[in-house]
Amino acid sequence: MNQNAQQISKKPAHCLAIVAESLYLLNLLVLPGIAFLILMVLYFKYENSSSLTVGCHLRQTFSATIWAGLLLMLVIWVIFEIGGYDTPYTWLIAIIYFIIFHNILVFLGIFGLIKAIAGEQFHYPIIGPSS
Fold it and tell me: How many other CB atoms are there within 10 angstroms of residue 29's CB atom?
């Protein structure tokens, strides 16, 4: 019974981490832009006033969302600038890049959500540990 009470008391502290990871996934899959704005508000409001785990998830998801958006747009733009808009191979390369990169971002978000549910920190690759 004591172990259940510890698990229940642990959950509210990590709800914000779960929300942050969920918003990251919502931004990628369902509500791009809207979910990012909500995540940005939570980041600026709770980033320094929360536990280390919650702060880590907020910083990581906020940074990962910005980097993901920049890389998705920038690389697609470069592909079209090099190949042109009227060649089928350019479209094929752009679509394949988008699908692969987007799926990697979704899988990383799922791993981050699993870690948030477990109450553990998660660091996105390339972004690394946040200060």
Answer: 13
